[in-house]
Amino acid sequence: MLTAHSRWEVYNGDNSVFSAKRSHAIQLKTKLQVFLANNVHEHICDFRVEGSWTESSCVIYAGESSTIIAQMHKKRSVGSVLLGKDKFIVTVYPHVDYAFIVALIVILDEIN
Predict the structure, then answer these.
(1) Which family does it belong to (predicted)?
(2) Can you list the domains of the chain with their CATH numbers?
(3) Given a cut of 70, is residue 79 above it in pLDDT?
(4) CB 101 within 8 A of CB 93
(5) Phi, psi at 94, each rounded to 5°
């Protein structure tokens, strides 16, 4: 769900799971800060997404560290251009929730 503050809120039923927002209002490259529901003060993000939609790729990091937890790039094909059916190649590192990564990629796709 997109809020009026350009923040995406993700729920599991009635329970908030996480929120994502752009790091800055104007960006050349997409940068999202992701906050888990229990991070109420949001001083430091729990995860961050950095990507380039023109290059059709992104990297998802744990917090402010350089630890990569997942990577994505779009696979370009004639079918994806003509039929509008995008294909994503996603690498999810061990011990990372696949559904969480997919949710972040969907948000990134919707933003762009």
Answers:
(1) Belongs to the LOR family.
(2) 7-111 (2.40.160.200)
(3) no
(4) no
(5) -55, 145
